Amino acid sequence: MAQIPLPPGSTLGILGGGQLGRMLALAAARLGFDVSVLERDADSPAGRVGLRTIVGPYTDKAALEELAAEASLVTYEFENVPAEAVLTLQALGVEVAPGPEALAVAQDRIAEKQFLNASGAPTVAYASADTPEEAVAAAAEVGLPALMKTRREGYDGKGQRWVEHAADAAGAFAALGGVPVILEAAADFARELSIIAARGRDGAIAIYPLAENHHEGGILRRSVAPAIATPALVEQAERIARRVLQGLNYVGVIGIELFELRDGRLLVNEIAPRVHNTGPWTQDGCEADQFAQPIRAVAGWPPAPARAFAQVEMLNLLGEEADAWLKFAGEPETRLHLYGKRAALPGRKMGHVNRVRPL
Ligand code: AMP
């Protein structure tokens, strides 16, 4: 077992080599840690800034053994890490944080909704369905229109279909592959917000200001933070964040996606047990960014302050939008962050810019 607090000079393992892993690795390096990345691609965004990449899928026993031999602690950049990988690492004596409870909740939309409602973090009404007949019954139960989502492995709006009429439910179930689904009542929201919060091993909590998020085609395009919000709304969001962190006995950073209803109530859409894609604004708007938090938390260091000193408009650069890097680099209020991806495929997240205005 690792020495806690973990001293600088130790090696941290990161499962996943994408852009979030890259920014985690950079944050770890800033605190004096070395990073080993486990990732399928030998040339990944995170691997290229880490000490080294262990190439393989998360289920590769030999790769996990290699990681366990090097890393004192392991964290991850995305929540669909197979439970099997976490168990294997634990059996090899290496802790994975945030732990298996948080992963189990975040990997299954039904378990997630059950946990949230039991913790006093409200969600839309929902019902589960494992068969076309159950899908029809679930649609009748939650009311229409309803959003059908696969219980597992959806992201960026993938694995989702709107059901407008009862007669469409069985067809939507088939179109999603005949796998177990959740039917969610439509949230009539005024805005989509997110709140990111960190919790240390001693239970200390740091909460970032709310971000207001705008999606196109299921992909995040733009976040503005701190979002314009009344103190009552901020208090409501922070209460939800505390309940979620405490309910999971959480160690690390979590992203909580929220719907702000027209009557001012907040509902939780989903939680991500990791650094969040609405959180890179913290790199240029806050005293410490979200990427430092999970490194500090898993290492047993205190959470960093999450106060904002600037308002930031974060724009994701998709595909060829990143080709305008020289223009962005020349704008005094713009901070450019590129992920080092080789090919600018359409819709691929290549980087982001933070446009900064002092508060
Ligand atoms: P998700 O993959 O669950 O984050 O959903 C992607 C996007 O779909 C959200 O950011 C919302 O814009 C929309 N969405 C998800 N669930 C609902 C819902 N129950 N009602 C209305 N819109 C939703």
Give me the count of strands: 18
Task: Output the structural class.
Answer: alpha+beta
* Mean pLDDT level: 96
- Bound ligands: adenosine monophosphate
User: What level of helicity do the residues show?
Assistant: 25-40%
Low-confidence stretches: none
Tell the overall outline.
globular
N-end to C-end Cα span: 44 Å
- Largest sheet entry: 9 strands, antiparallel
Element-by-element helix/strand order: EHEEHEHEHHEHEEHEEEEEHEEHHEHEE
Q: Roughly what fraction of the amino acids lie in strands?
A: 25-35%
Radius of gyration: 20 Å
Count, helices: 11
Record keyword descriptors for this entry.
359 residues; alpha+beta; nine-stranded antiparallel β-sheet; five-stranded parallel β-sheet; 11 helices; 30% strand; binds adenosine monophosphate
Short description:
Helices cover 28% and strands 30% of the residues. The chain contains eleven helices and 18 strands. The strands form three sheets. Strands 10, 11, 12, 13, 14, 15, 16, 17 and 18 form a nine-stranded antiparallel sheet that branches. It has a five-stranded parallel sheet with strand order 3-2-1-4-5, with helices on both faces. A four-stranded antiparallel sheet has the order 6-9-7-8, sandwiched between helices.
Write up this protein:
The structure is a single chain. Strands 10, 11, 12, 13, 14, 15, 16, 17 and 18 form a nine-stranded antiparallel beta sheet that branches. This protein has a five-stranded parallel beta sheet with strand order 3-2-1-4-5, with helices on both faces. Helix 1 links the parallel strand 1 and strand 2. The protein is an alpha+beta fold. It is built from eleven helices and 18 strands. Helices cover 28% and strands 30% of the residues. Bound molecules: adenosine monophosphate (AMP). Adenosine monophosphate binds next to strand 15.
